[in-house]
Design brief:
mainly alpha; disordered C terminus
């Protein structure tokens, strides 16, 4: 059937993306005020109809994406970049989708311009006459009084958007979407460079991923910029330009701090090339370069070093996707009236386990047993899985790295299923309704059936970074 061909998938996905956008104009994360008559609530009946249309469009997009991946895995050739353009284009003029976080970004940029301490207060400090006041009024719930957990590089970009747009909601949102599109382009460039001959399929799992399209292009989450800078830095390090790569990873950390995990694996790349004790010492230099970048960025931005103390603010918010938070809450309710102490202890234990897994993966990468880029991706996934706060789009941190070197393995297939399911978790409005979890469960069931009927190879084959084999000194130590 034509609809099952690569061209048919391109059309089907574009129709789905268009439906998501049109539905979002009625049921998206619309601003409380300042929508210019374009992004305004239009009554409950229209909102429900818009949500149904958006969910149907999302299902078409996911179905097209799954089939497209199956065709690429079977050896089909296609213009993946063109497909990405078809699927992303309808989302460009959509209102914020599946999240209200972009209003926080705009408000925080306005806070910097207005002279407020973004690391000491939340968007609620913006008064009616301040820049970004309309965006601040649209910030969701607990985030209204929450200080910014983001680094100064991202705040400078948000500040620039607010300054250029005067803080008006619609143009400021579109300005933030331009940053999201630049992040998408950076992800495409880095994944192509890391994947080599695996390019088309790698882009399928990374850039064409509905979870990324919905939450980075549609929702404008700054995780996209973090991932783009992180992967670009790793690509430069793989190519031997580790200093420049460390600078980019340092900039990624100054967007969101989890990017710091990549410094360990850039260090592994540097240490492997040199070998021996000297290699281990040299492997610490990427961290030093990134620290210098972070210090310089903070001083230039003028926002202060408050980001060092706000990294844990998100962990105080319970999300149903956090396994450690759910376990800690359950145990806490069993042993007492106040579950918070137990929940906090379980959360810290989860992070310690994650650090142990990351260290193990770094060792495997050092000894050549696991591809360095794959190890980085798995490390980021472990961090997400064991974090006290987990959002659906956090899975993209590691998925994009795994996609570059292992999209056509069992791990890549599993991440495709997980990505598709997580796309349903939040509604177009940004809320997390019960039926979102029901749809997520249905997608997981369909994905499990696919995994059983068409299992992909369990192991990673030759990868672009496999030229970094153990040095002669390492081989001598291992055999002698």
């Amino acid at each position: 059937m034509w609809v099952l061909s690569t061209a048919g998938c391109r059309w089907l996905g574009a129709i789905g993306s268009l439906a998501v956008t049109v539905g979002g104009w009625a049921a998206g994360s619309l601003p409380e005020r300042g929508g210019w008559g374009l992004w305004e609530p239009r009554g409950s009946a229209v909102t429900v109809a818009g949500a149904v249309l958006a969910y149907l469009g999302l299902t078409l997009l996911i179905a097209a994406w799954w089939q497209y991946g199956r065709l690429l895995a079977a050896g089909a050739a296609d213009r993946v970049g063109a497909t990405l353009g078809w699927w992303a284009a309808p989302l460009v003029l959509a209102p914020p989708l599946h999240s209200a976080d972009v209003y926080s970004y705009i408000a925080q940029g306005a806070m910097v311009l207005e002279g407020h301490d973004v690391y000491g207060a939340g968007p609620a400090v913006l008064g009616p006459g301040d820049l970004g006041a309309d965006a601040a009024a649209s910030v969701g719930g607990h985030w209204t009084h929450t200080p910014a957990p983001y680094g100064p590089v991202f705040l400078v970009l948000a500040q620039a958007v607010v300054k250029l747009t005067g803080g008006a909601v619609v143009p400021a949102v579109l300005g933030m979407r331009l940053l999201a599109l630049l992040a998408l382009a950076l992800i495409v460039w880095a994944v192509r460079g890391l994947s080599g001959a695996r390019g088309p399929g790698a882009l399928w799992l990374a850039a064409l991923n509905p979870l990324l399209l919905v939450h980075v292009v549609g929702g404008m989450h700054n995780d996209g910029l973090m991932v783009g800078l992180l992967l670009a830095g790793v690509l430069l390090a793989v190519r031997g330009r580790w200093v420049a790569g460390s600078v980019l990873v340092g900039l990624a950390v100054m967007v969101k701090s989890p990017a710091a995990v990549a410094l360990l694996f850039v260090g592994v790349l540097v240490a492997r090339r040199t070998g021996g004790a000297r290699g281990l010492l040299k492997g610490m230099l990427p961290g030093a370069v990134a620290a210098a970048v972070a210090t310089a960025a903070t001083l230039v931005a003028g926002t202060g070093f408050g980001w060092l103390r706000t990294q844990s603010v998100a962990g105080t918010i319970h999300t149903a996707l956090s396994l450690t938070s759910d376990l800690g809450l359950g145990l806490g309710l069993l042993v007492g009236d106040d579950p918070e102490p137990v929940k906090g202890a379980v959360g810290k234990l989860g992070l310690l386990i994650a650090l142990g897994i990351i260290a193990l993966l770094a060792r495997r990468a050092w000894t050549g047993r696991t591809d360095v880029v794959l190890a980085l991706g798995l490390a980021l996934l472990a961090l997400v899985a064991l974090s006290p706060m987990v959002q659906p789009w956090y899975v993209l941190w590691g998925t994009c790295a795994v996609a570059a070197v292992a999209w056509d393995t069992r791990a890549g297939q599993f991440l495709a299923v997980l990505s598709a399911a997580l796309t349903y978790e939040t509604a177009p409005s940004g809320h997390t309704p019960w039926y979102g979890f029901a749809l997520m469960g249905a997608a997981l069931a369909a994905g499990a059936l696919w995994l059983r009927r068409e299992p992909w190879p369990p192991r990673l084959g030759a990868a672009p970074s496999q030229d970094l084999r153990p040095t002669p000194a390492q081989r001598t130590r291992r055999t002698g």
